[in-house]
Amino acid sequence: MISSIVLITGLLLILVGLWGLLTHRNILRIIIGFSLMGTGTHIVTVAIGYVRNGTAPIIDRALDLSEATSRVVDPIPSALVVTAIVIGMAVTAVMLAFAIRLYDSKKTLSIDAFTESKW
Amino acid sequence: MIRRLFTIVAIVSFGLVFASLAIGYTEQQFLRPLAESYVRLVPQALGAPNVITGILLTYRGFDTLGEVAVLFMVAASVGLVLGAGRSPPSVSSEDRPEEARPPSEIVRSGAEILVPLISIFAAYIIMNGHLSAGGGFQGGAVIASGVLLMLLAYPQFQPNLEFLSATESVAGALFVLAGIAGLIVAGGFLDNRILPLGQFGAFFSAGAIPLLSVLLGVKVGCELSVILEKFRP
Asked: Taking the model in full, what pTM does it have?
């Protein structure tokens, strides 16, 4: 149940990001759309790793080693998402750097001003 | 008009695909076999209570190495894009005041109090990556947040870029060397059993995982700090 809510939230975030990507003309807003899409995919990935009544896969006083396999959530999506978050941040940094250079060249952030590479 | 129609069609078709995904989704009742073997093997064979850190730094350690390489590449490319040939701010600043407003008293005092705490918290997160939630990437991001606070509170603050680059390169080289050592004395590349596993759950345990966490945290923190510094006008 709880993971369906998380899953639907993530899918909605992807849609919101895609919508922002396609409708806005300001480069900064497009970058925000990209980031929203990325965050949505992270949420979806974590949601599909949920196991009913599972807890965090960390063995400590609250979770004994013998019962670990029956009580934890899937650790693989979590490990993948740690990687994906860092890569998403890196991609955002590169996009912002390009946005700064584009602003320097045309003094505007509207994507309508950059028609040279339009086909 | 055509473009708006195209947008709506794209969003609606994606929405239909996602809706079918959400409807067809059922919660897992049991772990899949691969996840089950990870949950069993990481505490037993690697001695790390945190299964995710064990996967990240040992079973998928090669992937983590590639990710660190991506971060390095991003730092380099941001430097390339924002570095040479960029118009100096004095030319392009006709629409902003000549003298930027100095940071307020609150920001400055807050930075003085928070930066040491942020550093300690980062060290805690990095060093406890194998015991509880945390690890190199998260701790490195916390370090970078401290550097960002310093940049906001002291606009004249100039991080030593050579030092950061050198530290980062040394950490990366040691990470690879630890991986190669695993190839020689243990089971494979980035195997953590090059050091004794120690007592399960103790601070110095889980073989090389705390060491790799520290190297990763230092590297990520330095790289993110360099990226932040490059974004300064």
From this structure: 0.83
